[in-house]
């Protein structure tokens, strides 16, 4: 082996070790710091919505006025305020804190967790389809109840305002908005959002509306037929669409990266699951309680760690074909995020193989062991 190859191997190993150390420094799942935390119930707070609307109007008026001379040096990057006035001290002083509900018994049939980052345009479309479906389902089945948690992941636009306005217009008390002051990543949004769910079943769904929400019925049927002792995960899958126009007509580089990522996932991640990344996954409450306290990764590959933990805990997983369409406005950068996802996946596998990360056993198993001892 040449010296170049040896040095390259050592450098790569050093980089991976550095990444692993950074992950190891954080508990699982990492709690938000004081500057990040903003997990509050913002529903039906009219004064907050008015304040945000007033802010947007002042901002639009200010931007329409062209100054006679530039007041900011050319090339200076203007820092945006996340969510407009929703980060002001006056705003936060009126917030109603939420208590964690993930460890208690369910009080709703279904919780819907929607991670959202800069989704002012796409969120209303997705929410309308979701609400139309859920309201009709609740009308037909009086025992069915639901809640929707929009998790604003430190958005730089008016995602919070849009979600608040929808809650006010719909007059549904069980639409809640959880907001971060800093962006944590999609995985971080889902992990933290899970702490405030009250449903017997918990659905994770993307804010882009790429998946047809009515496919929830198919996931529920498969999940109920598969779950054991209240444990189960149903994964929405687009694997059946690989040869359709939705995939075939995409760019060569996009498809190349997709197939390459699937190969890496097969080698280092989950086997037996064809589509790990579809943002439409349904969990039983007990499965969510077992999986998410073990999570470490907050980036795009968090789905894979979710499924890896489920497999390690022998939680039944069923893959269900769903309808899907590509929606403009994706936040994924093909090259940068693909490289980051591959690195994260390698780090996940290394930490579990080396025993740095450990998975807490199921409570059910602990209870059985204690009964046997008695």
Automatic annotation (TrEMBL):
Enzyme Commission number, as recorded: 2.4.1.117
Keywords: Endoplasmic reticulum, Glycosyltransferase, Membrane, Signal-anchor, Transferase, Transmembrane, Transmembrane helix
Compartments where found: Endoplasmic reticulum membrane
Enzyme class per UniProt: transferase
Membrane topology: Single-pass membrane protein
InterPro entries in the cross-refs: DPG_synthase, Glyco_trans_2-like, Nucleotide-diphossugar_trans
GO CC annotation, single: endoplasmic reticulum membrane
Domain called Glycosyltransferase 2-like: residue spans: 111-292
Cell inner membrane listed as a keyword: no
Database matches in PANTHER family: DOLICHYL-PHOSPHATE BETA-GLUCOSYLTRANSFERASE (PTHR10859:SF91), GLYCOSYL TRANSFERASE (PTHR10859)
Family: Belongs to the glycosyltransferase 2 family.
Protein name: dolichyl-phosphate beta-glucosyltransferase
Organism: Linnemannia schmuckeri
Phylogenetic lineage: Eukaryota, Fungi, Fungi incertae sedis, Mucoromycota, Mortierellomycotina
């Amino acid at each position: 082996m040449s010296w170049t190859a040896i040095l390259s191997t050592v450098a790569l190993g050093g980089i991976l070790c550095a990444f692993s150390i950074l992950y190891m420094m954080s508990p699982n799942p990492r709690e938000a710091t004081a500057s990040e935390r903003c997990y509050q119930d913002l529903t039906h707070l009219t004064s907050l919505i008015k304040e945000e609307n007033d802010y947007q109007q002042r901002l639009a008026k200010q931007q329409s006025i062209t100054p006679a001379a530039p007041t900011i040096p050319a090339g200076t990057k203007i820092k945006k305020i996340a969510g407009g006035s929703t980060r002001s001290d006056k705003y936060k002083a009126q917030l109603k804190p939420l208590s964690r509900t993930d460890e208690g018994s369910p009080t709703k049939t279904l919780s819907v967790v929607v991670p959202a980052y800069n989704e002012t345009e796409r969120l209303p479309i997705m929410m309308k389809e979701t609400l139309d479906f859920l309201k009709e389902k609740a009308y037909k089945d009086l025992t069915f109840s639901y809640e929707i948690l929009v998790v604003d992941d430190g958005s730089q636009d008016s995602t919070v305002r849009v979600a608040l306005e929808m809650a006010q217009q719909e007059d549904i008390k069980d639409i809640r908005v959880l907001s971060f002051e800093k962006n944590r990543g999609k995985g971080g949004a889902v992990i933290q959002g899970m702490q405030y769910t009250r449903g017997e079943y918990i659905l994770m769904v993307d804010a882009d509306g790429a998946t047809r929400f009515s496919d929830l019925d198919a996931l529920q049927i498969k999940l109920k037929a598969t779950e054991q002792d209240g444990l189960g995960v149903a994964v929405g899958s687009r694997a059946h669409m690989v040869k359709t126009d939705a995939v075939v007509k995409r760019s060569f580089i996009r498809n190349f990266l997709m197939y390459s990522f699937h190969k890496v996932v097969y080698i280092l991640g989950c086997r037996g699951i064809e589509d790990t990344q579809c943002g439409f996954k349904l969990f039983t409450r007990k499965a969510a309680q077992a999986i998410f306290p073990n999570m470490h990764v907050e980036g795009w590959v968090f789905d894979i760690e979710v499924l890896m933990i489920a497999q390690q805990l022998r939680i039944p997983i069923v893959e269900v074909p769903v309808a899907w369409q590509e929606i403009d406005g994706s936040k994924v950068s093909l090259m940068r995020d693909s490289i980051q996802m591959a690195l994260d996946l390698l780090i996940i596998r290394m930490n579990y193989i080396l025993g740095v990360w450990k998975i807490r056993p199921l409570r059910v198993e602990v209870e059985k062991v204690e009964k046997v001892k008695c």
